[in-house]
Design goal:
This protein has no helices and eleven strands. The protein is an all-beta fold. The strands form two sheets. Strands 2, 4, 5, 6, 9, 10 and 11 form a seven-stranded mixed β-sheet that branches. A four-stranded antiparallel β-sheet has the order 1-3-8-7, with no helix packed on it. The protein is globular and about 40 Å long.
Amino acid sequence: QVQLVESGGGLVQAGGSLRLSCAASGSIISINVMGWYRQAPGNQRELVATITRTGSTKYADSVKGRFTISRDNAENTVYLQMNSLKPEDTAVYYCNVPLIINYWGKGTLVTVSS
């Protein structure tokens, strides 16, 4: 079992920045990949970024150059630094750990006003 708790969402104006955090607990010794997904109203959940234990990253094209995913293995925490935010980034952001079971956090809402 893995528990994921996100924090850091909120309301920001377009062009602003936010930093999301996700702390993992439980059976964390087996975690390799950690990631962020988002779901806007009426849309499917989509990948934002992932990072492996060794630091290899992957980003959605829509966030490349604006978002940065990072990780603190000692603290079992993954971060998402979001810069130059756009109204279309508005969504609930979910932390994800893919193991035999796909673990998800409860999500944190990011709202970007124009």
